[in-house]
Amino acid sequence: MSEVRSNTPDSQDIVVKSALFMAVGILELRAGTGKLGVAQGVLRLDPTAATAFLILALALAGLPPLSGFWAKLFLIMAGFQNEAWITSTIAILVSFLTLASMLKIWSTSYWGDAAQSVWRPVPKIHRLYIGALLLASISIGIGVMAIPLFENFHRYSLRLLTVDEYISAVLDLDKSGLKGVRQ
Q: Residue 180: what pLDDT?
């Protein structure tokens, strides 16, 4: 059986999951708990935090045009090209399960009637908002610019794998008479 490899960077996971922790952190700080359903109606109480969470949840699930879509698409395509049917099918199922879990969190905490009684002001929370929104914007940017980014990363990775070019460049530096280069 062929090995399935994804050539896509996992930076989208870092961006999305970090921002999701920030978005959920806003909810937990403002509601005083991380239990689902205690704070309801966050969309009405805090549309900024709710919007950030929704964008990030959809990116994690792999919906277009967000960053998670391309990573999952390339992984699934590579699986099908290598006839890894079970792996590709599991990847698709995991995407649907991730979407279902994110929608459950959305419907339990962000949708519904606002629970104003548990919502409280928190000093300096604007830092979490800035971080979550900035990373959500990066996720959108990665999704929209995925193909050019992928082509650049692929080109650079090929250059890193070509050691002859690196050795030649280092030897040329040595010949140029740079001080501090050992002979």
A: 53
